[in-house]
Design a protein that fits this description.
- This protein is an all-alpha fold and 232 residues long.
- The chain has 13 helices and no strands.
- It starts with a helix and ends with a helix.
- The relative contact order is 0.12.
Length: 232
Amino acid sequence: MKNLEFAWQLIINPNAAFQSLKEKPHFWFPLVTISIISAAMLAWFYAVVDFDWLREQIVSSNPQFEKMSEAQRTKAVALIPKGVMMWSSIIGALVVLPVMRFLEAVYYLLIGKMTRVEVSLKQWFSLACWSGFPVILTMILMAVAIMMRSNAQMTPDAMSMLSLNELFFHVPMGHKWHSLLSSITILHPYIWWLTIIGVKVFSARSMTYATMVVLVPLVVIYSGWALFAVLF
């Protein structure tokens, strides 16, 4: 089955798609596609954004900004070179995503070993890469956001059109809830559900087992993130 055909099958019949993936695991297409498109969107963003304005927004969002003198503010702004920020973001897109998918696969492998599920690391890695593939929709919308911009003054938040923060909360950079609300999109529940289906098929266990395997670490991570925001 070709990659685009498989991606469509994943939407219309995820059970059959994951069964096929379990028998013939493959992961290069979703992994490389998402990484490259993400890096390309970031490169495009930094090519068109008014970086002086963006840099000012980033620095001024720091709670300590108001306590600085004018000279200190100027120095703080100058400490954020465009090249460093752009390339760190692009390299992050090319490196962080594959690492996160790999760690996700290792987690499934360890849980599988503990619960006597005989599935290889390659199989779990394929599941992690393909279940996260719908995130490509957010990247398509990023391109739309850049093309529809009214001027060059836009933040990365403006590109994340499906995030909870962009759609509902609109908390500014520097707010204690900003990073958490900006990291979750309305697409995430679908991705989590798709992953649950995949784990169920791969493990040949119950829906309850698959739901626990997928959601427990997410609850721990996001609860910890929220607690950190409240306390600090």
